[in-house]
# Entry
Amino acid sequence: MEVIQTTKIILAWELFEQGLPKTHIAKRLQVNRDTVRLWIGGIATLGLVGFLDSYVNAKKGPRPKRQVDAIVKRRVWMLRDREMECCGQKIAYFLNREFGMKLSVPKIYEILAEKYVAGTP
# Structure
């Protein structure tokens, strides 16, 4: 798939250099016009080889997992117990007020689900 995409990028640049409008390039290569616009803008900035290098290497390398710290989980559970089984929005409020932390309500309920089953403490 990567080879096909880089070939399309090279073709898009060559067609653009020949004066073909980006809309026509997009139709011919069967990609979105905005994609062609981004490719051409990147090539104009970095050069063809530089853009291809950055494009190929863009999605490589380790990605950190998005996990909630154990301390945050303990704080959510502590607030839930302290505030007599309050709702997720109140827990978000107390987290922000007391610890300066912002956590989404769905994430709070996800954390609560790890410890509590609906209807039981």
